[in-house]
Amino acid sequence: AVARNGRAEVLRDLGRFSEALAAYDTAIDRFPENAFARNGQAEVLRDLGQFSEALVAYDAAIDRFPENAVAR
Mind listing the pLDDT tens digit for each residue in 8-37? Predict the structure, then answer.
């Protein structure tokens, strides 16, 4: 999970947002209990200007991981 999230982060830093989003989606599919991947997905959606989708993703992360500082 750490390597997949790291790869997604680097893609995001490179401005390759669509690839970063796909990488976070893959991380979520493989590691559904990973709050970092869900938060990263929301951040990339925000970077893409998909604000409504980003809010939904943030809310889903908070609902799924209410005690997790990353999700909050």
Answer: 999 999 999 999 999 999 999 999 988 999
